[in-house]
Design goal:
Two copies of one chain form a homodimer.
Chain A: H1 5-12, H2 16-23, H3 31-43, H4 50-57, E1 62-67, H5 73-88, E2 92-97, H6 102-114, E3 119-122, H7 129-138, E4 142-145, E5 154-158, H8 160-173, E6 178-183, H9 195-210, E7 218-221, H10 225-230, E8 240-244, H11 247-260, E9 268-271, E10 288-290, H12 293-310, E11 318-320, E12 323-325
Parallel strand pairs in A: 1-2, 1-3, 3-4, 4-5, 5-11, 6-7, 6-8, 8-9
Antiparallel strand pairs in A: 10-12
Helix pairs in contact in A: 1-2, 1-3, 2-3, 5-12, 8-9
The first copy, chain A, binds a DNA duplex through helix 2 and helix 4.
DNA sequence: TTGAAAGCGCTAACAA
DNA sequence: TTGTTAGCGCTTTCAA
């Protein structure tokens, strides 16, 4: 059986109140008594039961993080940063993966709430007024990352649209006139939250229109994007830029093009988004957009904890710096 | 305020015992009463407080996983698998990262224990009798992965030594006689648990000795291994094989060699270990060892849960299949 | 400075 | 079939 406060109390011949005073550095205890208690604590190898403490305190010193999955390098890096920062502040971390399934996500959030986490870091698939009401009802501090929900929710991320716009502008300046854009299926638009993806697409279109590129880009929103690519003929005299909404797609495309013997960037240009860390092992160097994932994690945690401890968010929603990484692929 | 069992009881004009029977499908309740209660539950948006339940049940339906970090792709993949499987069984997951710091690891385990997790999946840095006693004292089901602690602890992983031996044998058969081995600093040997790394090294040495390679390999146990490599002269007529204890090192080495203009495998051979998923984007294809990370995660969770629920481990320690992936780098 | 007792929200054993 | 009550281990208030 585990040693409890009561055991310590009995062992020392004091009350449990006194033991608590010793354990938690509360005033109103004689130094000598305190020492006696603390010795007993060590001797009996007492360890507090956080479950019981949480019940009375109403706080668990636990955060929850809700992510899609950990296949994307960026997510893993983010999680790493979040864990670090959370425990630095004495908080433990629950992790819940939704696999982009809206119902699953709801269940995750519900479970986290039932486990009485003090706050949640949310990369949501869901969106919409109904969902916001749903979140509201938990009355738990929540900070959103990557996917913006609405002005009502604290958010840490980058200006996705502007970032993509900058990237595409760079490509246009290089003289490209034909564009292919590859992104995940956006068919859940309006239902599922694909804010990030929508914004990146908008960024592309904005840049094209502003710069007077009249030919509409070919937009491949398809999981079989490589198959779709097969239909495309590439020509040196009319160079095409393939823009991918994330590096993972760009890598797949790069592999595909290499296989086909299509030269990058001589015959076709390629751009990604994320600057995942493995890019440094690849040639040609992929042109991409970099943003500070770790910092997003740090800031999310710190902001959330401030909210938990002060009752309000001190930082409002934040847009962090992104950076165009000019490689050799375009 | 959150709705409690009492609130429901009052609202329905029944006792909290009855509410509990309705909520948890316990017998001894009239169907009609049950329906009435469940309706109220819905109407008042009641959600159970797991903290309170845990206190009385003595179980939290929570597992903890202790890892080094998430920078290695394999760890992220493992974690992903573990989360999936855990929640499939109704368990939530705490994640704690040690950054390979033995003291930090102890703190993690202690916190997990205090949070009353039902079981722990442990990739430990610590080892030794003292540590085992320390673990023992928590009397929490623990399953170890990657790093073996001792026969006293359930373990899921592969036969690291045999795997490396197979890899090196393959290299020897290709005619290589000079070997360089790159691995992390093993200076904590005896103190920190570097089982995996030790085993891989042993595998290398066993293969060399068995096959009668008399020249001792150059073993670089150094974080600055690229610097060390600079001192080495490569010669076509006396070809060297560089064996890395993990793919991450191999990628760094590959980059370095490319920079130096050293041809792989024409001038030097290279082998990794792990088969991380980004290898498929690289040329030349890296020869490496593959093992089923996800499966390790699944099995660890299932085995642990069985232990939790039955009181004993049904599977004893497991060695899963590994596979030599023959690439073009050696 | 200390002790006694109530109570956090839930479950489970016993009574009715 | 239902209600009552004790208690999980801790903190906190009030009284001594």
């Amino acid at each position: 059986m585990r040693v409890t406060v009561k055991d310590i109390a009995k062992y020392c011949g004091v009350s449990s109140g006194t033991v608590d005073r010793a354990l938690n550095n509360r005033p109103g205890i004689k130094l000598k008594t305190k020492q006696k208690v603390l010795e007993a604590v060590k001797k009996l190898n007492y360890r507090p039961d956080f479950t019981a403490r949480s019940l009375v305190k109403g706080r668990t010193m636990t955060l929850g993080i809700v992510l899609f999955d950990l296949y994307n390098r960026s997510f893993a890096q983010l999680l790493n940063a979040v864990e670090l920062k959370a425990r630095e502040h004495g908080y433990f971390l629950y992790i819940a993966l939704t696999d982009k399934d809206p119902e699953n996500e709801k269940q995750c959030i519900e479970y986290l709430a039932n486990h009485k986490v003090d706050g949640i870091i949310l990369f949501s698939v869901n969106q919409g007024i109904e969902f916001e009401q749903y979140l509201q009802d938990f009355s738990i501090p929540i900070i959103t990352i990557f996917n913006f929900i609405s002005e009502n929710w604290e958010y840490v991320g980058i200006q996705e649209r502007a970032a993509m716009r900058d990237g595409v502008n760079h490509i246009i300046e290089k003289g490209y006139k034909n564009f292919i854009y590859i992104c995940p299926p956006l068919k859940h638009m309006g239902k599922a939250n694909i804010y990030t993806q929508e914004e990146r697409l908008k960024g592309l279109l904005e840049a094209l229109h502003t710069k007077g590129i009249n030919d509409e880009p070919l937009i491949i929103k398809h999981n079989d994007y490589l198959k779709e690519l097969q239909k495309v003929k590439f020509a040196k005299d009319n160079k095409t830029a393939i823009v991918c909404s994330c590096d993972l797609y760009a890598l797949e495309v790069m592999n595909y093009l290499k296989q086909k013997g299509v030269k990058i960037p001589e015959e076709v240009g390629l751009m990604g988004f994320d600057n995942i860390d493995v890019l440094k092992y690849l040639t040609p160097k992929l042109t991409t957009i970099e943003y500070p994932v770790e910092e997003i994690g740090f800031i999310a945690v710190e902001s959330l904890i401030k909210k938990i401890e002060n009752g309000y968010f001190t930082d409002t929603s934040l847009s962090l710096e992104y950076k165009l990484i000019v490689g050799e692929s375009i």
